[in-house]
């Protein structure tokens, strides 16, 4: 039996499928092979990026641009002219930092001791001997800054702990914070209490204040501790699929008596542990070590106050009898100035009287020694006064 027009209905469709498949093969064979197009490298390590052409080439060039940037905005690093093997480095490129292997089939570009400045998109472009359009592919290189410091803090007391330290806490619910600053990318945390994983905790990541390219990662844990225990916080930000910790801090928790177990605070005051001593935080209207006293009605006393039991009481008020501190100081300064003025006047009066006494003495001396001072004799003075000389002078 002959099927009419069967060839027309079957073979053309097969031809289209074959042609489409051939085009896909051509396109796939024309693509450059750069391996993993998204790669991570640890800071201060060395990484190589490959570029394997699918056919013979006349030129190969490596470029660098910002992460996610296009080839049009990239800066050329190095060029290879394959006909004679000439390698040309662009001006300003540090050849001790970059290395290019022109003799390898995958033409790798190596970056030594990578830093955050090396993060970006690296483009490989080739010119084909066949005359086909140039081929180009990029690799996004990101730099990992490994956590090297971990900080553990007791949130309720503000105490910071060091690795291996024995710390005293109160039995019951305790809150801890674990932080790793200045890293990239953000960290993942693992909490353990006596080698048992704790899965309920919060994580937070904020941009580093020291370098906006980095983040500060932290985790907050609330855990109930009923006996002496070992607490461990670990953090890692690996990008190779492994989960081993980069940094770990372990402390031994030692239970201590609760100073607020018998609440000493009155009138609704809140007790808290301050260096092993109870401290009462008083509500509005109350003051004192145990919040047993009534606070004054002045505006300054309307806020809550805290006083550690056994510690110094509240400071003395800064005003007396309704006078402010500034007024009191002004009165004292005025009194001192007035006293100084009176002292000066007294000294002036005494000095004047002393000068008058000295002048009177000088006049007396003048009458006794007339020749020296040019005055009259005693005899003349007596005659002038109607008197006479003594018998001794007459003889």
Feature tags:
395 residues; 5 helices; disordered N terminus; 24 strands; alpha+beta; 6-stranded mixed β-sheet; disordered C terminus; single chain; elongated
* Order of helix and strand elements from N to C terminus: HEEEEEEEEEEEEEEEEEEEEEEEEHHHH
By secondary-structure content and strand pairing, the structural class works out as alpha+beta
Q: Name the helicity range.
A: 10-25%
Task: Provide the gyration radius in Å.
Answer: 49 Å
Oligomer: single chain
Strand order of the largest sheet: 1-9-8-3-4-5
Q: What global shape is seen?
A: elongated
Strand content: 35-45%
Poorly predicted regions are 1-14, 16-30, 315-321, 364-385, 387-395
Topology:
Blueprint: H1 6-30, E1 38-42, E2 47-49, E3 57-65, E4 75-81, E5 86-89, E6 98-100, E7 109-111, E8 120-128, E9 135-144, E10 151-154, E11 159-161, E12 166-170, E13 172-183, E14 188-193, E15 196-198, E16 201-207, E17 215-225, E18 229-236, E19 247-256, E20 270-274, E21 277-282, E22 286-287, E23 293-294, E24 305-308, H2 325-368, H3 370-373, H4 378-384, H5 391-394
Parallel strand pairs: 1-9, 12-19
Antiparallel strand pairs: 2-7, 3-4, 3-8, 4-5, 6-7, 8-9, 10-11, 10-13, 13-17, 14-15, 14-18, 16-17, 18-19, 20-21, 21-24, 22-23
